[in-house]
Design goal:
This protein is of the alpha+beta class. The chain contains 13 helices and 16 strands.
Length: about 375
């Protein structure tokens, strides 16, 4: 999994590397017919040659691809004469014909795309014997074994016993009604106190791991109680509540399959709802949206997963759809660049949240909104 530390390393250490650096993005998904027989190695070789990568760097990178068959959907490589960094991702990247290679300044746009597109999702597996927590990110899952470690064993035991104690066997001695009511009230108070303790632990974990979304898995009644006890700021992060898997010893891969079945459809629904909102309140069209963005006027910029077309960048950094507009921003070299190359950098420069949409929402963004749409700050 690409951890927070790995992400931070890319932003803080790979990004500032002194040029020239190779940035290679490659579709290596074994499920794709076009990758049979390591065809991705041939694509990489052609791309490295076209990018003008020095032979010694190309040899090192191609050798790594030949001898280390990726068990992933995408591979990202940064390299120069004395070093190489490799990242395997279980997600697709926005690539044309399955490969992109650049030699020069570090080219981070595709990886920034996936970092902006995918949120870290926490999965809380509620079980009366032991709660477990997982983190899902970029198509991978990691169990966080220490998430609820601070909870004393006797509390887990009591939760288990109390859960069983709610049901009385036929041969049990019946309590008087008043005593039963007091028992149930004490049980309810303790259970709520226990759950609130778990809420506090959960909130600390979310903050530490920078987890933005939640999925709750467990018995319906238990999940419902915990969900209702969450403070509003956490309840709003819950994407779904799912029925428990057969055993608390469930493997992480089973949890991933369960969660992935709901995450992507929910994300596509959310993207379409966002476009509905922007249809009423947003600014649409590539040139108009870029102009308002560079005036500092956008709170949110929504772009397609594969932005189309090229734009012009003026010497002062201004970006627009026409060369004439770029010239108006000062004399000097006017650079023509891919739109997708400059979007992450522009959004970061003006403190604008950048979001990408895929599938039906991406098609709708091109057809109805002119390829870009933004939500004004005012």
């Amino acid at each position: 999994m690409l951890t927070q530390e790995g992400t931070r390393y890319i932003r803080e250490f790979v990004a500032p590397r002194v040029a020239p650096v190779l940035s290679l993005y490659l579709d290596v998904n074994p499920a794709n017919q076009g990758n049979q027989g390591k065809a991705y190695v041939l694509r990489a070789r052609d791309a490295l040659e076209a990018a003008g990568v020095p032979p010694e760097v190309s040899k090192k990178v191609l050798g790594a691809l030949e001898h280390d068959a990726p068990q992933a959907r995408s591979r990202v490589i940064f390299a120069a004469s004395g070093w190489i960094e490799t990242y395997d991702l279980q997600v697709d990247l926005p690539l044309v014909q399955g490969v992109e290679a650049r030699w020069g300044e570090p080219y981070l746009t595709p990886i920034f795309y996936v970092l902006d597109e995918y949120e870290r999702v926490g999965v809380v597996f509620l079980d009366s014997q032991k709660w477990r927590m997982f983190e899902v990110f970029l198509g991978e899952i990691e169990e966080l074994p220490g998430a609820f470690r601070a909870v004393p064993t006797q509390d887990w035991n009591r939760l288990t016993q109390d859960g069983a104690g709610r049901r009385y066997s036929q041969g049990a001695v019946h309590r008087a009604a008043a005593n039963t009511d007091r028992f149930e009230r004490r049980l309810e108070v303790w259970t709520q106190r226990f759950y609130k303790q778990m809420v506090g632990i959960l909130e600390q974990t979310l903050s530490k791991r920078d987890i933005q979304r939640l999925v709750l898995v467990g018995q319906k009644a238990e999940v419902l109680v915990f969900h209702e006890l969450l403070p509003r700021r956490l309840r709003e992060r819950v994407l779904a509540t799912l029925p428990s898997l057969p055993t608390p010893l469930t493997q992480a891969g089973e949890v991933l399959r369960l969660v992935q079945g709901v995450l992507e459809p929910l994300e596509r629904e959310r993207e379409n709802r966002l476009l509905d909102e922007l249809a009423e309140r947003g600014v649409a069209g590539r040139d108009q949206t870029l102009e308002l963005l560079q005036q500092g006027g956008l709170h949110l910029l929504v772009a397609p997963w594969n932005p189309l077309g090229r734009v012009y960048r003026a010497p002062d950094g201004w970006v627009g759809g026409s060369k004439e507009g770029a010239v108006a921003h000062g004399a000097g070299h006017i650079e023509e660049v891919d739109l997708k190359q400059v979007l992450p950098e522009l959004a970061a420069s003006y403190g604008t949240r950048l979001e990408f949409v895929r599938g039906p929402a991406e098609e709708r963004l091109h057809q109805t909104f002119g390829g870009l749409v933004g939500l004004p700050r005012w």
